[in-house]
Design brief:
Blueprint (H helix, E strand, L loop, with lengths): L3 E2 L1 E4 L15 H14 L3 E5 L5 H13 L4 E7 L2 H10 L6 E8 L2 H6 L5 H15 L6 E6 L6 H14 L3 E6 L6 H14 L7 E6 L6 H10 L4 E4 L13 H10 L5 E2 L7 H11 L17 E2 L2 H9 L18 E2 L7 H10 L6 H17 L5 H8 L1
Parallel strand pairs: 1-10, 2-3, 2-9, 3-4, 4-5, 5-6, 6-7, 7-8, 8-9, 11-12
The protein binds 3-methyl-2-oxobutanoic acid (KIV) and zinc ion.
Length: about 375
């Protein structure tokens, strides 16, 4: 059976770029957008044109040069925002507006000082206005993760009637647990009569470290687009990380879901985003962290050297790395030391290895991590 296609909506250049200190200039954004195109994302959210002339310019330049993915611009449910997004996207081969409004009572009362009825009218009016310029209209129900489920259903039904083609259900505050988010998505699929007229999207934040789990839960329950950023950068604790969802779907073929992402490009784009955005990647970050394919304890190293799958569920080559690494520390065993010394061209007997190993441990206790030059010294 063929796998269901999952659309990848990348928001590194919009939600990711909102992070203080991560701002990029237009040339840098265009460079990343071209890499996202090569990576195979389906939609690039290029910015929020009304927010600044710089952001408008970036959306406009990206629209001129990036051809394969749909180029998307964010707007609030406000006419001037939609006009500005349309202007910025004028050269895009395929364009999408991403418009929306808060859907939870917390947002309706405390952000808009409004009522459910008025917010619903504004949402519908924004989508209807967008149809003047766009065939591809994504509507976001901000803070859907905490919104009343029946009000959310009503809002989704009405905006689809008004012309929305993609419905984004954001867990804006990262509040949901996978089980509750699953239920919310399923409820929408079961209770919105025209839901088959739109693609359902999930946009999760990582405040509780659950963004990837919630995204997968959404996809398992009917969503067919997910929104994410490279390295999981984004507001506060970040957005869902693109590489985690893509590789989780690849590691679990039984889910019957896949993307068109060329996973071998993951490491290079991850490094570029980290460098240009001045945002280091934590060493133990899944998929792209420096330690994601590094084995350091003796038991793991021995098991890994006997059979890779003892300790790895993804091949490093699949994400663009040359190989896994075996770190030599005071926790390493004889198997790892023998392996590294052989790679450096040394030969020795098992008896000799015992003596070398004792000296190696002494050295490793002093220096936390041993490199090849330390091993040359050791062998002298
Ligand atoms: O997190 C969120 O709700 C957003 C919307 C603007 C889609 O980023
Ligand atoms: Zn967001």
């Amino acid at each position: 059976m063929g796998k269901d296609k999952v659309y990848v909506f990348d928001t590194t250049l919009r939600d990711g770029e909102q992070v203080p200190g991560c701002q990029l200039n237009t040339d840098e954004k265009v460079e990343i957008a071209l890499d996202l195109e090569a990576l195979g994302v389906d939609i690039i959210e290029a910015g929020f044109p009304i927010s600044s002339p710089g952001d408008f310019n970036s959306v406009s330049e990206i629209s001129k040069v990036v051809k394969k993915p749909v180029i998307c611009a964010l707007s609030r449910a406000i006419i001037s925002d939609i006009d500005m997004a349309n202007l910025a996207l004028k050269d895009a081969k395929r364009k999408r507006i991403h418009t929306g409004i808060g859907a939870s009572d917390i947002h309706i009362k405390n952000k808009f000082n409004s009522t459910r009825e008025k917010i619903l009218d504004q949402a519908v009016a924004a989508v209807r206005y967008s149809t003047k310029f766009f065939d591809d209209i994504e509507f976001y129900a901000e803070d859907a993760g905490r919104a009343d489920k029946d009000y959310l259903c009503k809002m989704v039904e009405e905006v689809i009637k008004a012309g929305a083609t993609v419905i984004n259900i954001p867990d804006t505050t990262g509040y949901n647990l996978p089980e509750t988010f699953s239920k919310k998505i399923k409820y929408l699929c079961d209770n919105v009569p025209n839901i088959d007229k739109a693609i359902l999207s999930v946009h999760c934040h990582n405040d509780l470290g659950l963004a990837t789990a919630n995204t997968i839960a959404g996809l398992q329950n009917g969503a067919r687009q997910f929104e994410s950023t490279i390295n999981g950068i984004g507001e506060r604790a970040g957005n869902t990380s693109l590489e985690e969802v893509v590789m989780a779907l690849r590691a679990h073929p039984e889910l019957n879901l896949d993307t068109k992402i060329k996973s071998k490009n993951i490491i290079s784009i991850s490094k570029k985003v980290s460098r240009l955005m001045n945002m280091p990647i934590q060493k133990n970050k899944a998929i792209v962290g420096a330690n994601a394919f590094a084995h350091s304890s003796g038991i793991h190293q021995d098991g890994f050297l006997k059979h890779r799958e003892n300790y790895e569920i993804i091949k490093p080559e699949d994400v663009g790395l040359k190989s896994s690494s075996i770190d030599l520390t005071a926790r390493s065993g004889r198997a790892a030391l023998r392996h590294r010394l052989k790679l450096l061209g040394f030969s020795f007997s098992n008896v000799e290895l015992e003596t070398i190993y004792i000296r190696f441990i002494e050295m490793a206790d002093e220096k936390k991590l041993l490199h090849d030059e330390d091993l040359y010294k050791l062998m002298k």
